[in-house]
Amino acid sequence: MQPETPESYSAAAKAIWPAAAIPGQPGAHLRAAQADDADPDLTGDAVTRSTDEVDTPSGPEEIPDAEPTYGSELLDELRAQIAQFVIPPSPAALDAIVLWVVATHLQPAWQHAPRLAVVGPAKRCGKSRLLDVLTETVHDPMLTINTTPAAVYRSITEEAPPTLLVDEADTIFGTPKMAEKNEEMRGLLNAGHQRNRYVTRVVGNDHTPRRFATFAMAAIAGIGDLPDTIMDRAVVIRMRRRAEGEKVKPFRSRRDIPALHELRDRIAAWAKPLLDETAELEPEMPVEDRAADTWEPLVIVADLAGGRWPRLARMACARMVAAEAAAEEDHPSGARILADIRRVFVAQREVDSLSTDELLHHLRQDPESPWAEWGRAGLTSRELGRMLRDFGITSGNVRLADRTQRKGYMRNKFLDAWRRYCPTVHPVDADPAPGEG
Fold this sequence. Notes:
Pfam families: DUF3631 (PF12307). The chain is an alpha/beta fold. The chain contains 17 helices and 10 strands.
């Protein structure tokens, strides 16, 4: 099957726009039919549910699954293909990636173009590999590495926008100085989240004002969080480094791209006749406001596909939005703090817990570490908490060796992060000891 041409895609777009779904309005379009509850994880051991996902109300879980359809089988197949090459942080994140990819093939129907923020606290978390797979499955991919904002403006057409793919975003927004230098790119990514947000630039020798469209879906990958204004418009995928025993299939262009392209073309062919229906849908959403705007295209794709996907989409939406709302917004400082804390616990003979004050004291005592000079008075408990929160580690009440109880950190809370980000510092227990938790 041949891929969609820009002419056919834009013709379909002109036929249906400006009709659009209205974010957050009632009136679900579900393919409701009774079915036995299915296991949401197609890939078995390829993806395991994250233990730190935020609990949410049971509403999305109660949506009955319908019989599988051709659309739901396409989404299942795409899910299995992606899971071969990357290990997202949870099945919900994998579901969100699948729905986002399919949504790129229905861009003319959307009022909002959700960003896919693929972030991680350190290198080698699978961010670029995920972008490799996205490049071969989304609609009309446009890689924007070292691309100027002016070139991006001229590449976005109102009738058939491309899908923007931005890798190594930390080289664009990683420091305040970088972010200031690349303010125009940030503005483009912010404006492009909503239809009919234009920028005006003067062009030509006579400096004629010209209006440029910005609306396009975008996937943005980098180390650390992106600017808050982009994260607020994004479905956030917080990648993690693979732990020992977690395996993925190497991505080989010659072998793997043809299969991905064949699946992409079947998805595009399935989606094109649904453009008119898509623009009229007003799904029931488990979230509100901007989160509903961002997630609505993904939920609509799930409702169009049917099967178990309406339930999976709403579960992913509720859980991932709640997790982001609870997460600290500050950027993590990377794996250095984890490695240094590991050394402190080793030096203290692997005690079960340390008070925050004691941990900070030992960190500041290391002459080769930056913690004694971190800020005006050295690393503080507040800053330590901010650094660790992105790794899913928080402080709490701990009982010390002298039987007193104080605020501090339990050793077992670090085990998973140590395995993933600093496994060579010292052997780490495979699992928490009995009674730890």
